[in-house]
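assembly run, all chains below
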Amino acid sequence: MVDEIYPVRWEDGKVVMIDQTLLPAEHKEKSTGSCNEVAEWIETMVVRGAPAIGVAAAYGMALAANDLRDKSRDDFDKGLLKARDRLARTRPTAVNLFWVLNRINELIEINPHVNPNEMADKVLTEAEAIRDEDLKMCMTIGKYGAELLPDEGGVLTHCNAGALATAGYGTAVGVLRAAWEMGKKIHVYSDETRPRLQGACLTCWELDRMKIPFTMITDSMAGHFMQKGNIRLAVTGADRVAANGDSANKIGTYTVAILCKEHGLPFYIAAPFSTIDFDCPDGSCIPIEERDREEVLCIIPGGDTYDHINVANPGFDVTPHKYITAIITDRGVAYPPFSESLEKLREIP
Amino acid sequence: MVDEIYPVRWEDGKVVMIDQTLLPAEHKEKSTGSCNEVAEWIETMVVRGAPAIGVAAAYGMALAANDLRDKSRDDFDKGLLKARDRLARTRPTAVNLFWVLNRINELIEINPHVNPNEMADKVLTEAEAIRDEDLKMCMTIGKYGAELLPDEGGVLTHCNAGALATAGYGTAVGVLRAAWEMGKKIHVYSDETRPRLQGACLTCWELDRMKIPFTMITDSMAGHFMQKGNIRLAVTGADRVAANGDSANKIGTYTVAILCKEHGLPFYIAAPFSTIDFDCPDGSCIPIEERDREEVLCIIPGGDTYDHINVANPGFDVTPHKYITAIITDRGVAYPPFSESLEKLREIP
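ok done. output:
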């Protein structure tokens, strides 16, 4: 039995999160009743991963609504608008965040005559629904994805698209888990994923808990292990998928996809359908977050003497659709041409 | 004027090295009169980089010879054999090390009747010649390589093939330096080069001293900057080049070469001619050193809780010749087919 991981949950009027910045050294939760603090925790990556950020933002809205139960409806609406703006400013690349905020916004708009006390209940119910749906979506993605994996062999993943990045279960790691639980004898290669090391700190921690065999490698080793024949495919999550299939994910994913192409290996994206941004025709309109240079420098011994040098830190890159074998969603698996197959999944009621 | 960097030098009967494990935080030298200590310093990467290891090994032999001046010739020979074996066990991938040890061995063999005192002088003279030749070779490589660089634009390098990796001046970084000194407006992208971070700690430190404009990136970012058009070519060193052009270099070099191919960019190797191992028909016979897992784990926060997990740490990978645009040596530039062009360079007296 797997000891389930739920990175974000609601308990007694508060949001409880696993502090992912402490893993793997410490497995600790922290809780807050403040929407602002939720926003700060998203920014400082106490919680990260596109779907988990979405769930955290939904609960953040529920906290903001909670604080406005005694106000006038006008003040409630203004307060929630402010909360939404604050949360929207946290991370620009993941589309789930905006999808969640819009969904709660719509709920407010279609209930203009409900009083703030009842609205706060409604927002919480919606947040709980978003969380439950995400968990269910992940399990469905796992089921679809597991079918695509070979009966045995090495599978590469990059960054963390596991339980910690979602409401639970995970997307790319959910696929690995489902395959493993089906009896497929996979061996995972987990890129450490510089600069933030989410692969090393989070994916390896999750795989270890689930007792799925794995090897930690640096990002620069994946090509070598493909050349040696140890890796048979790669599967990663996505933070935003454009209508044509171009996919933004953690920096380094594009390189993984190119390595797969060069070695004739499949490269899969696993993501909830809500990750697909139909308003975004292709990857060129996905904003790429430039993060703090300290994330790169902090592990360099003597990096504090490098104040004056240029350090780049794009948090994500865009993998053009031509490198993607299939996109595994909770509505099914989309194959190229993605502009057609994703549109078809969209029509599923 | 550039403040020249000489990582290994001989001074008053001792070997003096810049302690590269302290850079960029501290620029400090340490000295030793013991060949064993030189071997340890090669193992612990006080000195690293194939040509610099060769120079260090040559001086290590000179130290061993120094200690045997008063012995019988038989004991001298036995002592030097022991020193050679010790030095040969330090790092298996770089061919320069073995080339240097063989060269000193030959010197001993062709002088069977010279007394140990004179032999020790001969060994030191040979070591000094190896050092001087390496420095001259690097400057020649720089001159040949600079011609291949565009008048402006981004150039990627991986690991450190700079002054610190050689007797001075550098191979791949020597090419960048020569181009910059010719007035070419290049901008270097320096991969940090996990796990040991030689790019971040050494190449960036060198580029900074030389005031060549550069940006530090993680290994996972190179693809992204090629996709954006910021990088126009890549140049790296090599630890061993097979007769067919297959080149072993720091782990991650193979990925850089594939990224270049996919983006239609040239990928150059810059290395002294002595790096070419004609006894090695192709990359499959180059031994790849597996290094300590702690090198990977030591920067992972909480990595000490990972005692039981698998961590891979191949120090090098092999880039097949088909990905290499040209090999820049001190005897000239070799183009494909390398089995012919390298052989032709070999015939140059």
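Chain A has a mean pLDDT of 96.

The two ends of chain A are 34 Å apart (CA to CA).

not gonna interpret more than that til we talk
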